[in-house]
Amino acid sequence: MMKKVIFTILLFISFLNSNAQFTANAGIDIHSCDMDTNANSVSIGGVPTASNGIPPYTYEWSIVPIELGFPGSGLFFHASNILNDSTISNPVIIERNVASTVVLFLKITDATGFTAYDTCKVSFSNFMEHLMWYSWVINSGDSAFIDVGSNVGGGVGSLTYLWQPSNSLNDSTIESDFWAKPFNSTNYYVTVTDSMGCQRTGAPFCFVNVNPLSVDGIESNTFFNVFPNPVNNLLSINYSSTADNKIEIINSQGQIIKELSNQKTTGNYTITVDTKQFAKGIYFIKISGGGNTKQTRIIIY
């Protein structure tokens, strides 16, 4: 009888020690950039999330409720609004735009009723980009003062800027108020980096159109038109001239991406270009011949 009592006591002590070591692991703190490949599937919780308890376990994830809209709105986000399931060991964050930082609280209960607790913090770099663009027209050799800021904002902490192409800028590392002196028509875009190292590269934003000093424009008896603009699938280029003409499609970095040479006509002439092969953005159609040239801008969306 005494041996049975001793065995029962030792078993109970072992049970208590086991549950005293019962731990919860909410996982490491995470920072997610919005351009990461896993930006929309950030998983939390440890591997394993529960240790040394008696399974099965019950998981409860929670947050301090986040109020939506203006103070006093009475509308709140809870853990169930930002996680795909707040009752599993390794849920996935499905809503990252509620706040830049979210602290998640984890409570685990094992089969005997013992509980363990832990927390983790998830922060996000969320960037925003607007679709406006600005243009300047200068003569060759002149400069344009770029004073319109960046089309990319957001992120976390302080931001740094890198404008491209940078070789014609007096300072490519500031947000605004710098000079551009390109030799050819150029569209500038910016890469913004926040204090966490997350980046967003914006669409071409600042277009500087350069008029060559030696060219006044195409001959008065030459017609040049492109349509539709903006274009999605097929671009029509309509022109008339008595000279051999070269037509070039130029991207925002000044690179010729398509050339149509020796297009000669004595009347109206229309050619069609499939624009689905080009990336979305701003391009330039340039027609030249007989010592004259003309250029126009198109948007491919």
Task: Report on the architecture of this protein.
By secondary structure, the protein is mainly β. It folds into three domains: 17-125, Immunoglobulin-like, CATH 2.60.40.10; 128-211, Immunoglobulins (Immunoglobulin-like, Sandwich); 223-300, Macroglobulin (MG2) domain (Immunoglobulin-like), CATH 2.60.40.1930. 8% of the residues lie in helices and 43% in strands. It is built from two helices and 26 strands. The protein has helices spanning 2-20, 79-82; strands at 23-24, 30-33, 42-43, 50-51, 58-62, 66-67, 76-77, 92-93, 101-109, 115-125, 127-129, 134-139, 144-146, 152-154, 160-164, 178-180, 186-193, 199-201, 206-211, 223-227, 234-240, 246-250, 256-260, 268-274, 281-289, 292-300. The strands form nine sheets. Strands 12, 15, 17, 18 and 19 form a five-stranded mixed beta sheet that branches. A four-stranded mixed beta sheet has the order 2-10-9-5, with no helix packed on it. The chain starts with a helix and ends with a strand. The relative contact order is 0.12.
